[in-house]
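__Record contents__

***
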Amino acid sequence: MLRWIDVLTFAKYGNPEPSHRVEKTEDEWARELPPARFRVLRQQATEPPYRNAYCRSYEPGLHQCAGCHSPLFDSATKYHAISGWPSFTQPLARNAIRYLFDESHHMQRVEVRCNVCGGHLGHVFPDGPAPGGLRYCINSESLVRVAENTG
């Protein structure tokens, strides 16, 4: 289980290596992604709160990166944070997420990106529920939910 000290350590000293990398030019991403997804994943935009696909969705499944389809979060770790964006307590794997210090907009935050393709997902905060205390505040545009296999 990751904790805030792990997040800060990764952001400061280096992130775990992903299982593989997906590298494309920005032109390739722009051709492949719908405009709203491109703005979030590649230009670090933020979608409007509460009016996004997964804010109020708690259906079981895995949430994958909308850019490269790498698994990021399990719906079992999603909770109602009243933030306006989907919130998760833990990533699916230690090496699923890349952590970077973000001082944009006159704030000090930790940005989270897909560790495979580098797509912007959102931010992580130390105000989540126990036991880990993390809140991954994620843009719906950066995610694709895949239903659990019931067969």
